[in-house]
Structures are given as C-alpha cells and as structure tokens.
Amino acid sequence: MSRKRDGRRSLGWLLRSNGWERRLNFAVLAVAVLLALLYPQIQSTLDFLPKLTTAIPVLVFVVLALGLNIVVGFAGLLDLGYAAFFAIGAYAVALLTSTSSTIPYFREHPVDFWVAMFVSTGVAATFGVVLGAPTLRLRGDYLAIVTLGFGEIVPLVVRNTPDWTKGTQGMNPIGVPKLPISDIQFGAITTEPWYYLILAVLALSVVLTSRLRVSRVGRAWMAIREDELAAASMGINPVTTKLWAFSLGASFSGFAGSVYASYLQVIAPEQFRFDVSIFVLSMIILGGMGNIWGVIVGGIILGSADRTLPELAGNFTRTLGTQLNLVGLRDVDVSQYRSLFFGLVLVIMMIARPEGLFPSARRKMELHAAEESEVEAEQQTLTDAQR
Amino acid sequence: MRAVSLRQIGFREVGWAAGLVAALVLLVIGVPAIARSPDLFAAAIVIGVTNGAFIALIALGYTLVYGIIELINFAHGDLFMLGTFASLQTLIFLGMRSEEGIQGSPQAWLGMFLAMLVAMIFCATLNVAAERIAYRPLRRAPRLAPLISAIGVSFIFINVGLLWFGASPQRYPDLLPEIDFARTAFGEASLISFRLKDVFVIALAVPLMLGLAWIIQNTKIGKAMRAVAQDQEMSLQMGIDVNRVISFTFLLGGALAGAASVMYGVYNNNTDFTLGFNAGLKAFTAAVLGGIGNVTGAALGGFVLGLLAAFTTIYVGGQWENVGVFSLLVVILVFKPTGLLGEVTPER
Q1: Secondary structure of A109-164 as H, E, C letters
Q2: What pTM, to 2 d.p., does this model score?
Q3: CB atoms within 10 A of CB A1
Q4: How far apart are CA A150 and CA A254, in angstroms?
Q5: Is residue A242 helix, strand or coil?
Q6: Which residues in chain A are closer than 8 Å to B134, comparing Cβ atoms?
Q7: In angstroms, what separates the C-alpha of A193 from chain B's closest C-alpha?
Q8: How far apart are CA A5 and CA A195, in angstroms?
Q9: Which of A175, A218, B34, B231 has its CA 20 to 30 A from that of A66?
C-alpha cells in the first residue's frame, strides 16, 4: 500500500520506507551507483558494451531529460522547444571561454570553465523567464506550439547572425574544465575524466530535482498540473509557479549544454534542431513522466538504443541483403531512419501506456482517470458540459 | 463544454479584418516600399497571394480538426509532404517524370488531374487512418496525450517520405505551359511575373475553399460537423454518429492537403521529405492568425501569411522568413489568441 503513495518516489523513500522494501531499494540504488562508477573499467574488459564516447552523450541527454521532466512531468507543461535552452547554454559557454570568441574581451581573457558553466546556466534560466513570462498564461497546447516556435527561432537566429555566433561554421575551440588540486586533463583523447564529470553533473541533477519535487514549489507544480483552478483557489499563483518550472527546466538544459559544448569542443546550430527536443521528450515519456528514476532509465534505454541500434540494424540489413542478394536491402542506410524510432515510441506509449514504463503513481492515476469506470466518465463529461 | 467553433461565414467580419490587415501592411511597409519600387511591391503581392493559397488549403485541415476535437494535428504538414510524393509517384507511373515534349499538352493536363485525384484520395485515407489508430483511442485522455501522439505520427510520416524518395530533393515536372501575362504586357524586363501557374493555383484553391464552405453549411454531414464541434456529448444523444463525423472531418482535411500538394508541386517544381515541417508551421500559424476553429479565418490567415512571408523574403531576406512567421505566431498567441475572426472560448 505504501508504494502507491507518490511521496515515496523521491530520495525520501530511502529513509521513510521500512523493512525489506527499504533494504531492497537501497541495494538496487547501491548497485546502480557502483555500476555507474565502475563503468569505464567494466567496459574495458567487456568491450561489447557501448564505449565511453557513446555513454557520455547518453548521460548528457539523461540530464536534459531530468530537466524537461520538471517542466513536462512535474508541472505538466508541454515544452517542444527544450533544445533551444540547450543551445543557449552551449553558445553562452562558447562565447565566454573560446579563444576564438566573437566578443573581443573574452577572446583575450577567456573565462574559467567552472565560472562560465554557472553563468550559462543563469543565462538559459533568464531566457526561460523571458519566454515564459508572456506565454505561460496560454493553454497547454498553445504553449506547446509557442515553445516549438522558440525552439525553431533560436537555431535560425544563430545561423543568420554569423557576426555573433559564426553561423553554420560553428564555434571552436571551447574552454575545458581545470581541476585546481589534481593534474587530471580534460583532453580530446582521455574520455574518463569527462565521464566522471558528467556522472557528477547527473548525480547533482538527481539530488536537485528530487529535492525540488517535494519542496513547496514542487508540490505547487503538481497541484497545478492536476487542477489549475483548484490550485489557484488554494492560493497558488499559477503563472509564477509555472515560471519557476520553466526557468528551472531551462537552467538544467543550459547546464547540460555548457558541459556538452566543452566536451564536444565544437558547436553548430544543426545540433540543436527540433529533433533534439522530441528525442528528450520521448525519453521521459518512455520512462514515465514525473518519476525521476523512470526518466533516468528511459533516457538510458532510448539514448543507448539511438546510438547502438542503427549500427546493429545496419549490419543486419547489410548481411541479410548480401545473403539474399537484395541490393535495395543491402544498401539501405538505417541510421537515416533514427527519428522513426522516436515517432513510434511516442505513438505506442501514448496509446498503450501513457504513464511510461516506470510510472509515477500519481501521474498514472491522472492519465487513467477517465477509464476508471464508464459511469464516472459519463458523469465527468456531464459536469464538463455544464461548465 | 465547447464554444461554437465551426461557425458560419460572417462576410462583414471578413471584410473588416481584411481591411484592417491590408491597411496595416500598407502603412508599415507598403508606403515606403511602393515609393522605392512599385514593380517589386506588385511582384511580392503576386508571390504572396499564390503561396497564400497553398497555406490556406493546409490551414483549413488544421482548423477543421481543431474545430471538431481541439487537437493540433501536428502531422498535417507531413501529410501534405506525402501528398506531393503520392502525386509525383502517379506522374512517374504515367511516364511524366519530366515535362519534356508534353508541357502544356492535353496529356499533361490529364496527368495533373489524375495526380491530384490520387493525392487527394491518398491523403484523405492516410489522415483517416492516423485518426483511427493514433488519436481516437486518446479521445478521453488528457489533452496533451493526442498532441504527443500526433508529434509521433509526424515523425513516422517524415520517415515514410524518406523511405519513399530518399533524402535528396526531387524534381517535380513543370507540366503547365510557360505563359507569363505580366511579362507579355509590360515586357521581358518587368519585375512582376504573373504566370499561368499563379492563375492555376488560385483558380483551383478558391473553388476548393468555397466547396468546403458549402459542404459545412448546406449538407447534412456539414450540419453534423457543426453540431459535434459545438457539443460532442449532446450530438451523440441527438443520434449523430460522432466517430463518423470526426472521420469525415479528417477526410476533408486530408483531401484539401492532397489537392494543395499537387498545386505546390506544379508551382514550385520540387519537393523533399523535410517540406512538411515548414509548410505545417506556416499553415498552423495561418489557422491561429485567422482564429483556430474558424474556417473563414483559416482561409484569410493563409493569404495574410503568404503575403507576410513574401514581403519578409523580398524586403528582409529569405533566411529570415521563418523567424518572421514564428514571431508572428508567438505575438498572436500572446496578445490575441482568438485570432482575427476567432470567437471567445473558455479556458484559453
């Protein structure tokens, strides 16, 4: 019975749940953390596992998914332009730390990466407020389209203003983090430091989002998601509450963007297209909107599938095509069809299991409310009709 | 539960809104632009009106569906893209991959007619199927669920397009005879170009829109559509087969997108699988501009948006066209979410 309570689904369950359940949860978490920490060593012995160069982008996208989960999962606002904040974070860190920055002052005096990381997080959050303040009064589906428009405008503006952003050519190089005590180098060849940096970023994001979830504003998000009118009459200001969700979500995106830019060393507008926003959205829908652990698992599943499946499927169709002597099948480039996968995930999940693979109990209740019983559903539509 | 969405055409309001928009356009960009080069301005108007016709036809598909079930049919632009592919496939099948030797011949006209027929049937069927599979099961779900499903359908359509003709842009045969009324009248050097193509597009689009208006206002199923748009539950109790009406709405929207796709192909002579996103967003903006759910508004919005896009391309630069369109969308949604002709609906 206690598992049904959504309040347990944050880090709090570790302390609050009791008996074997608590021990089991703790054991699962410990094993997961240990596996994550030892992954570079495990991978070097079991080389069929995805390489670190695959794992790092996957983890960056998991951080993005955690941020989008605040907006979509907690507050119930559909944001289709999430990649724009990713771009803003990446470009902010590039402008501040690149030795080829378009701002002369920073070209001469590049800012330290750690400082730039927090600045770009702030810049992304500011953009979140700027976009959110006028638009959050809109109804859900209109908000989705406005954010989609914003997500499309940002890469276009980046491409069309080469004096500021170097346009399609992209920005390169980008400052790398330096550790004050040890002499670990964040270079192009050594991927391990990057892996641990991103793991740390992910851990921080998990702690922050799970604390946010049970905070005052987090509970307000859920109240608004379930019934905006009721929440407003209980004294919650819908616009400021949504604005918090929007700008906090944006700050996670900017945070991830700054680290990713530094890891990749080159950023161009094409990396932040609409597909990226939908990719991240598919992750949280697959995992389960509103459930932090579900989102992480969904993100890892979809992220690794996206990076390894095209190759596997490509090998498969190539061999099959050669065996059966079908030129069409042999020469098909499977990696072109990556986005088909997201599309299928979205449709199938919405129809079959809208609450995701690992649902948040509360979200599940909302999504299935209409199916509970036909009578109740009829009553619901009747009261709707009276409204 | 829902306000009247597919309402009857109010000519007075159309006139009023069109006049206001025209006056604004004239004041802000028109006067200085005309003074500089009247020819360029006229050229922009021709391009704008013709492009507006495609946009309006696609926008009608958005507005019809939104009017009935309040779903932003995200996949509609990609349906239009698949329409261009279906018609191109028909032309290839008829041996008209290129216009050489048959440009303007009766054979070419017949080809275009068949291509349009196939595209309309194809898009209508596909749209109805998408509704059946991806949106109908979600009719009672929270309103964001069908929207997310529609985004998924959009991605599936894009990949179908990619699988069909590959990633490279495809040439669409130039089947209409090369006649340019403006250049015959004002000489070859004229900046204005008013070709048979422009006439073709407008001459097809306007009757299609009027036909749609006629169906909605005068037929039994049109009446049923208006009833379902007003109150789904009550229509059901009055004996209207709501599912059939919704399917019919998707059928109409799909057929219009199919027709628009052939007009687009013949006019622009190219197509590719990424076409749908831009076309869809422009059309959605047009539908919102006119007041989403309002059929007349969508047609008006299409033409206004076509003009806006043409003016942005000519006076600001082609690469800013989409920025202009999106900015307009954001501005309308924030300041006047009911659009030019829209009605006040609760909870917007």
Answers
A1: CCCCHHHHHHHHHHHHHHHHHHHHHHHCCCCHHHHHHHHHHHHHHHHHHHHHCHHH
A2: 0.85
A3: 4
A4: 15
A5: helix
A6: 347, 350-351
A7: 36
A8: 35
A9: A175
Q: How far apart are CA A62 and CA A261, in angstroms?
A: 16
C-alpha to C-alpha distance for B127 and B115, rounded to whole angstroms: 18
Which pairs from A178-181 meet CB under 8 Å and 24+ separation? Answer: A178/A112, A178/A113
Q: What is the 3-state secondary structure (H, E, C) of A338-355?
A: HHHHHHHHHHHHHHHCCC
What is the DSSP annotation of A94-112?
Answer: HHHH-TT-SSHHHHHSPPP
Q: Is the pLDDT of residue A338 over 90?
A: no
DSSP state of B76: H
Contact B1, B220 (CB under 8 A): no
Distance from CA of A215 to the nearest CA of B (A): 25
For residue B221, with 0-12 CB atoms within 10 Å meaning exposed, 13-18 middle and 19 or more buried, which class applies? middle
> Which of B152, B167, B327 is nearest residue A344 as measured by Cβ atoms?
B152
Helix axes A192-214, A238-264, angle to 10 degrees: 170
Q: Provide the angle, in degrees to the nearest 10, between the axes of the packed helices B275-290 and B76-93.
A: 130
Shortest CB distance from A142 goes to which of B1, B142, B337? Answer: B337
Half-sphere exposure of B313 (CA within 13 A, CB side): 15
Residue A220 pLDDT > 80? yes
Q: For the CA atoms of B282, A130, B150, B124, what is the dihedral angle to 10 degrees?
A: -20
Range with the poorest average pLDDT among A177-186, B90-99, B158-167: A177-186
Q: State chain B's maximal CA–CA distance in angstroms.
A: 65
Report which of B250, B259, B205 is spatially closest to residue B49, judged by C-alpha positions. B205
Does the structure show a pLDDT above 70 at A374? no
Token digits for A193? 């430091």
| Both structure tokens of A50 | 């995805």
- Confidence class of residue A370 from pLDDT cuts 50, 70 and 90? low
Which residues does chain B have within 8 Å of residue A281's beta carbon, measured at their own beta carbons? 148, 151
Q: Does the structure show a pLDDT above 50 at B5?
A: no
In this prediction, residue B6 carries a pLDDT of: 46
Residues in B touching A351 (Cβ below 8 Å): 133-134, 137-138, 149
Q: How far is CA A114 from CA A90, A183, A289, in A?
A: 13, 16, 31
